Amino acid sequence: MARRKAKRDPFVCPRCGTRVEEPLKTWTLVSPFPDRKGRITVTVMGSFRCPNCGYSWRAVVKKIKTEAAPPQEEQGEREEGEIIEIDLSELDDLE
Ligand SMILES: [Zn+2]
User: Is the residue at 90 inside a domain?
Assistant: First the structure.
């Protein structure tokens, strides 16, 4: 069961290594700038306290990327729907 992770577990006490079930409280930090794809990163922070040694720390619980509304809609490239043209002279030839 001793699986080592490359990333540090935010729930584990940095002092004694006790794993905390859940943070005392969490809050979110919203990145003020979207990334190149226009997504906003929401960081969920947590404050923890170790029940074993009493050490308290803050850590990033998780990061969420959300689809942000596009800053501006591009005009002039809207699809108007397909226009079907029927050549009536062809229909006349059938009779
Ligand atoms: Zn501890």
Answer: no
